[in-house]
Design brief:
There is one protein chain. The chain has one domain: TolB, C-terminal domain (Neuraminidase). The protein has three helices and 26 strands. It has helices at 7-23, 108-111, 227-230; strands spanning 32-36, 46-50, 58-63, 68-73, 82-86, 99-104, 113-120, 131-139, 147-157, 171-173, 179-183, 205-209, 241-243, 249-254, 261-265, 271-277, 288-289, 292-293, 313-316, 330-335, 348-352, 358-364, 367-373, 385-390, 396-400, 411-416. A four-stranded antiparallel β-sheet has the order 1-26-25-24, with no helix packed on it. Strands 2-3-4-5 form a four-stranded antiparallel β-sheet, with no helix packed on it.
């Protein structure tokens, strides 16, 4: 789950202050720090957080290789972690595989449905050794704190996957009520299947499906304004494909105020990037890595239906004398819409898994108009940022990767920076 961020900084190190002064002088990006949000809770390889819109004030955290979903009250002092789901199906457990995504149905309170994304190992039943799956589960009819493990229905089954890495794994419902799914370019390196610019396969894309209206013999329907359904120029795209040209989106999210879709896309050797995602968009992989040429056009052709859109920002991997190591693996976050940090409202927050750095950007008209580092990173505060999470109030959390034998596995929050820190 490498997470990149860097080209942005060669560009923005010089430009961002001027841009910010011209367009956003009254809203500087705040200086923040991190603190443990739930001191009594610890998780094993936590990789995703979600909450149901049911007034329960519960948060849910996914453990990647344990294949568990835990719930707990959104209360700083809580020590009441309760097992919600133990995934019944066998999973693949390569470093980037496992239980990766969780999304509660927008009408969970009425229908008890939630969805998970996992790396299935179906070899015991004669199926493929590795492929990604999205399943629907339901909460128990008798206990609202426990899922019914027998309720699983596989909704979407991904293509056979030749490699253990680049599995995306983020799922979320958009403001349109459709389920968005991301999976990477299959894996290995250099886009070996040339899937980035191939809109016929599901790799290297964000998909959008309608889980409430199954159709055409599938367990889901296709929204009428998916690219292939709304415009003949996209007729060669698979009906599920919403956008293409992504290497491995490690987390996307919707701005709960505007509905805008932001994605952190992990680059290969040089750059990490943030994209503003549009219906029918093409984000360039593997012709481009962020703003830069990657594979030449003679080795992979750009899809003719959709010109390549550059990222909002990028950051480089390689440190320079003027700039420390920004990171190697981006973790996309959220546009902050909470109440605790007023200066952060409207800022898209993201970080890097390798370096623990956390940045913010303001977007306007499809461009980043302000960009800055939010925390003053000290070795003692360097978090392996596996994911960001959001609660019902729009407050943000950071899931720090860790296991039973390591120091972390805790959940952090952003707080105002005290003077002297
Ligand atoms: Ca893969």
């Amino acid at each position: 789950m490498r997470m990149p961020f860097s080209t942005l900084f060669t560009v923005l190190a010089a430009m961002a202050p001027a841009i910010a002064a011209a367009e956003d002088s009254d809203t500087p990006l705040p200086q923040l720090a991190t603190e443990v949000a739930f001191p009594n809770l610890k998780f094993d390889r936590p990789v995703a957080m979600d909450y149901p819109n049911d007034g329960s004030n519960l948060l849910f955290v996914v453990e990647q290789h344990q294949a568990k979903v835990w719930s707990f009250p959104n209360d700083k002092e809580t020590s009441q972690k309760q097992l919600f789901l133990q995934l019944p199906a066998p999973i693949s457990k390569d470093n980037e595989e496992g239980l990766l995504g969780l999304a509660f149905h927008p009408k969970y309170k009425e229908n008890g449905q939630f969805f998970v994304y996992y790396s299935a190992d179906d070899s015991a039943s004669g199926g493929p050794r590795r492929r990604s799956v999205v399943s629907r589960f339901r909460v128990s009819k008798t206990d609202p704190r426990v899922a019914d493990p027998k309720s699983e229905e596989r909704i979407w089954i991904g293509p056979d996957d030749p490699f253990g890495n680049h599995n995306g794994g983020c799922i979320a419902f958009g403001p349109d009520g459709f389920l968005y799914i991301t999976l990477g370019d299959s894996g290995s390196a250099d886009d070996p299947l040339r899937s980035g610019q191939n809109p016929k396969d599901h790799f290297g894309s964000i998909l959008r499906i309608d889980v409430d209206h199954p159709a055409d013999g599938k367990a889901y329907g296709i929204p009428s304004d998916n690219p292939a359904r709304r415009d003949p120029k996209f007729a060669h795209w698979a009906p599920e494909v919403y956008c293409i040209g992504l290497r491995n989106v490690w987390k996307f999210s919707f701005d709960r105020e505007t509905g805008d879709l932001f994605a952190g896309d992990v680059g290969q050797n040089l750059y990490e990037m943030v994209h503003l995602i549009k219906n029918g968009g093409n984000y360039g992989w593997s012709i481009k890595e962020a703003f830069h040429p990657f594979l030449p056009q003679r080795r992979t052709k750009a899809d003719p239906a959709s010109p390549i859109s550059p990222p909002l920002v990028e950051y480089p991997h390689k440190p320079t004398p003027e700039r420390p190591d920004d990171g190697k693996s981006i973790t996309g976050g959220y546009v902050y819409r909470g109440k605790a940090l007023k200066d952060l409202v409207g800022v898209y927050v993201y970080g890097d898994f390798d370096t623990g750095r956390i940045w913010g950007l303001r977007e306007k008209g499809g461009k980043a108009v302000a960009s800055a580092e939010l925390i003053d990173l000290k070795p003692a505060t360097k978090l392996p940022i596996a994911a960001f999470g959001e609660d019902a109030e729009g407050e943000l959390y950071i899931l720090a990767f860790g296991s039973k034998s390591s120091a972390d596995g805790r959940i952090y929050r952003l707080v105002p920076r005290k003077s002297g820190l």
